[in-house]
Hints:
With 540 residues, the chain is α+β, with helices and mostly antiparallel strands. The chain folds into three domains: 5-288, no CATH class; 302-373 and 387-396, no CATH class; 403-536, Topoisomerase I, Chain A, domain 4 (Orthogonal Bundle), CATH 1.10.132. It has helices spanning 28-33, 46-64, 81-94, 99-106, 109-112, 138-141, 168-181, 215-221, 258-262, 330-334, 344-352, 403-433, 442-467, 476-500, 516-526, 530-536, and strands at 5-7, 14-18, 23-26, 38-41, 116-118, 134-137, 209-211, 250-251, 267-274, 277-285, 287-288, 302-304, 315-317, 340-341, 366-370, 373-377, 382-387, 390-394. The strands form seven sheets. Strands 3-2-4 form a three-stranded antiparallel sheet. Strands 6-10-9 form a three-stranded antiparallel sheet. A hairpin with a 4-residue loop joins strand 2 (14-18) and strand 3 (23-26). The chain starts with a strand and ends with a helix.
Amino acid sequence: MPDKEFNLLHEPWIMVMKHDGSTGEVSILDAFRHAHEYRSIAGELPTQDVAVLRLLLAILHAVFGRVDTQGQYAPLCEGDADQALDRWESLWNAGQFPMQPIERYLTNPKIEERFWLFHPETPFYQVAKMIGGTEYSAAKLNGVLSESGNKSKWFSPCTGKAKETLTYSEAARWLLNINAFDDTSAKPTRGLNLPSVGAGWLGKLGIVYANGNNLFETIILNYIVLKNGTELYGPENPVWERPVKTDERSEIAYPDNLSELYTLQSRRLLLKRIDDVVTGFRLLGGDFFQKENALIEPMTIWKNTAKKESDPKLLVPKRHDAERQIWRDFASLVTQKSNHVRPGIVDWINVLSSDTSGYLLNAEKCIHFRTPGIAYADKDFFIDDIIDDTLTIHTKLLSKLAEHYVERVINQIEICDELVKQLGFLAKSIQLASGAGKEDKQPDGAKSNAMTLGYAGLDNPFRVWLETIIPDKTDIDKACDNWWKIARKIIRDIGRTLISQASSKAFISHSDYKTSPEAYNWFLYITSSREILLKKGGKK
C-alpha cells in the first residue's frame, strides 16, 4: 500500500445532506466550495457533526484570520474590532465562500501534506509509528460506543464483518469524533503518575452552536471573530501548522485563538489498516488544559462552582442532561447570572443582531441553536447515551434590553416544572392508593414516568410558543396567559388519563393515603390557578 493515501482535502469523506434530503460524501475543499448548496453536515451521529464543523471552522479561522476575502494579507490579530466585523460581514453577504484564499492556503504544499489520512511521518490527527497505547478494534471507533465481552454496542451502524472494519472515509469521520468525545477507558502506558486527561474536550462540554439554513450559514454563524464581542483573538495556530506532538497526557496552556482550540488533540491515535480498510487503532491520552474558567471555549454553557457567592467565579462547562429538554435550561442558555454564564456563541449572535455591529444579522429573525453531546457513566469510563436537541428563539431575546421578556419566559418554565411535579404527585398517590407501599419502587417509578409524560406533552407546544415571543412586539402578559391555558390543559389531560387507568383498589377509602378521587381533586385544585400552583411550589 502507498505510504501516502487518502488526502482529506481532495477525497470525499464529509457526509452532507442536500436540500432534497439526499446525502453524500464530499472533500474538505468541496464542502467549502458548495457549502451554500448543502443543507447541513449529516454524519452518523450529531457529535460527529460538531467535530467536523469545528475542523471546518478551524480552517476558516486559519485562512481569514490572516487574509481578507480578496486574499490580501491583513491579520485580524493586528487589526481592530471594526476590521474583524467588516470581514465577517463581507463573508456573510457573499452567500458563499470565496474559494481563492481558501484554496491557496490549503493547497500550499506544507499544509496539504498534513491532510493525508495515511502518511509515514504526519498522518492527519495521528502520531506516526506509535507503539504504545491501548489497542482497539474498529468497532470501538465506529460509533464511539465501547464494546466488551458482555456489552453490545447500542446502535452500531454495521453488523458482522462490516462492523470489524471501516472504509477510509468512515475512519476519517470517526477519527475526529473519538478525538473530541473519547471516554476515559484508555490506560496510561508510562506509569501510574501521569495526570488524568478526562474525556475528550468536547465530551466535557454542554455544546451549543448556531444552525443556519444551509451549511454556509452554519459555518459563518459560528465563525466568531471577536472574543466577548469586543476582543481580538491571538494569532491563528491550528495543529497542522505545528510539529506533531507525541508525548502522552500533556497539560497545555489555554489556547488564545480558535483554530488552535478547535484542533485540540485530546488523544494520540494511530489507525491500523489492512487491504484498504481500517481494522483498529492505538490510543493514548493527549493534550488537555484545565476546564475551570477556560472561557476561550465559545460552544458551551458554564456553571459557577464557587462555594460562596463572595468567592471569585469558578466556571466549569455544564454538560447536558440526556433526560432534560434544552428549553428547560433556557435560563442558562440565554441569561448571565451569578450561578452561570451563557455560551460565547450566544453572545456572538447577540453582537451580530445588535446595533453595536450595525445589525449584521437581521434583528427580526429567529436563530436556531443545536445542543449535541454525550452522557457518560461510571466517571466517564464509558458512553451511556447520545444527546441531541435544538432550540429556536428570537434574536432580540438575547439582548440585555429584553430582560423583562426573558424573565417572563423563565417564569413560564417554572410553571411547567410545577405542573409536571403535581402530575408526578398524582401518579404516586394513585399507586399508593392502589396498595403499593412506601418502601416499594412502584410509586416513585410511577411518579417519574408521569413526569416524563408531562414534559413530553409540553415539549413541542412550548417550543412553538417560545418562537412567538418577540420583544417590543409581543404582548407578554397575553402570551403568558395563553401559555398557562395550554400548559394546564396538557397536564390535566394526562392527569385525567392516569385516574381513568387506576385500579378499583385506588377508589377504596383507607386511613393511610388519599383515594384516587381525593388525590385527583387535590390535583385539580393545585392546578386551578398559577397563584395556587406557585405558592404550593414555594415560588412567588
